[in-house]
Specification:
9 helices, nine-stranded mixed beta sheet, globular, 13 strands, about 260 residues
């Protein structure tokens, strides 16, 4: 299993101080950056093949990785047009998407614990989505709608009249088996080839889901602490709410010592 971590964006909505901007995956919570936390949790879950898609200030990420001196060595690929949508970052990682085996596609700017990752990687080859039913309504969360166990929508805006029995926020992590990862790479390539490289990669994943050619499991992670870092108030919530819950997890705390 291979993890592809999308870390190319500029994080403009975070509004970092002038001259101090850095990739969001380098934000530190407690004794570790989000990047280092990804590595520890993935290794604990049995995933040690990790590919970072970088872009904005990629040298800082490379320096962080060199300082950690992680084994086995992680791979990095650079999205030179990082100001465009994340669909281009997935396209930049097309080799890692299509070289075989199951693929985890993950946002880099998420603080989370092992109860988020464990159900994603469990079991044999699978396509899997994560849903958190305890979410704040509004335009920001990407909603995952499910009808009779089948995903029927993956978007911030849900069309009126859509038939579903479960709705929640999609955690920014996906799992694809080899055939499905190949198909997603094809969809993403079409986005880029038809002038839609400015769109978020969730749109391409949505197209994949709505084709209904590939079966997906839905793993419910409601109650497990996690937060995506988009705005400054997310940084505050991560530090004051989510981090204390993570500090209670002895396995991760021990890994950082």
């Amino acid at each position: 299993m291979r993890a592809i971590i999308l870390a190319a964006g500029m994080g403009l909505r975070l509004v970092q101080p002038e001259g101090q901007q850095k990739p969001k995956c380098l934000l530190r919570f407690g004794d570790a950056s989000l990047l280092e936390r990804h590595l520890h949790l993935l290794k604990a879950a049995g995933v040690d093949e990790v590919v970072f898609v970088t872009g904005f200030k990629h040298e800082q990420i490379e320096a962080e990785l060199a300082g950690i001196d992680w084994k086995p060595k992680t791979e990095t690929v650079i999205n030179a047009d990082f100001s465009l949508g994340s669909v281009l970052s997935v396209h930049t990682a097309r080799d890692a998407m299509t070289r075989g085996g199951d693929v985890l596609l993950m946002d880099a700017d998420v603080l989370y614990d092992e109860r988020i990752l464990a159900p994603l990687v469990a079991g044999d080859s699978a396509n899997r989505l994560l849903i958190d039913r305890d979410f704040e309504a509004g335009d920001e969360p990407v909603k995952l709608c499910v009808a009779h166990g089948v995903p029927v929508e993956l978007r911030k805006q849900v069309a009126a009249g859509l038939d579903y029995d479960t709705i929640g926020e999609s955690v920014g992590f996906f799992r694809f088996d080899q055939k499905t990862a190949q198909r997603l790479a094809e969809i993403v390539a079409d986005y880029v080839g038809t002038g839609r490289a400015n769109l978020p990669h969730e749109e391409a994943v949505r197209d994949l889901l709505l084709e209904k050619r590939h079966a997906f499991d839905i793993a419910d992670v409601t109650g497990a602490p996690w937060i995506e870092i988009d705005f400054q108030n997310d940084v505050t919530r991560a530090a004051l709410d989510v981090l204390p819950q993570l500090n209670a997890l002895s396995q991760f705390a021990g890994a950082l010592k």
